[in-house]
Specification:
By secondary structure, the chain is mostly helical. It has eight helices and no strands. Helix 1 runs antiparallel to helix 2, helix 4 crosses helix 7 and helix 6 crosses helix 7.
């Protein structure tokens, strides 16, 4: 009876330090842009990016290199949402400490109008639009990052784009 050679394939899971550094090089700027577009605070965006990479490093033993980008953006998205929710729970106690917002009755730049329109979207709509239109993710990838189904992602993107189209189309916002 011939000996039967059994070959076991061991799947490499643990991410190496070199792979982690490669992920940092490739995705740090895109991740920062995504978070900054959502929260509009460069210092907080930097902190959230740092927190996201720290969480990725802590879990690096369980993450495959090929799936790291999606996992990283999921971490960042959830960290950002947690931060925004925490901020909403904080109550402003002194009206004198609130910043004075200048009147912007006229716009000469379409980018400013678009940024103002993005601010008016809900958190989830703004996130999916930025992931799709600014970062170029597929509907499936956005669903994985935001824990939504692909059809929910499409609906949120459609509604957000429709709102932005109507918002930008109003002449008083452009002039």
């Amino acid at each position: 009876m011939p000996a039967c050679n059994v070959i076991y394939y061991v799947r490499k899971i643990q991410m190496t330090t070199a792979e982690y550094n490669q992920i940092v090089e490739q995705y740090a700027n895109g991740l920062y842009r995504y978070i900054l577009k959502n929260i509009r605070d460069s210092e907080r965006a930097s902190d959230l990016v740092q927190d996201s990479f720290e969480k990725l490093w802590v879990r690096s033993a369980d993450i495959q290199f090929s799936k790291a980008k999606s996992y990283l953006f999921s971490i960042a998205h959830n960290t950002m949402i947690d931060s925004l929710r925490k901020e909403k729970r904080q109550v402003v106690t002194d009206v004198a400490d609130m910043p004075v917002i200048a009147d912007r009755s006229q716009y000469s730049d379409l980018k400013e109008v678009l940024d103002e329109g993005l601010k008016k979207l809900s958190e989830i709509q703004r996130s999916v639009v930025l992931l799709r239109d600014y970062e170029g993710y597929s509907y499936e990838e956005i669903g994985q990052i935001t824990n939504l189904s692909e059809s929910q992602v499409k609906v949120y993107i459609f509604r957000a784009r429709l709102f932005l189209k109507n918002y930008i189309g109003q002449i008083e916002h452009v002039i």
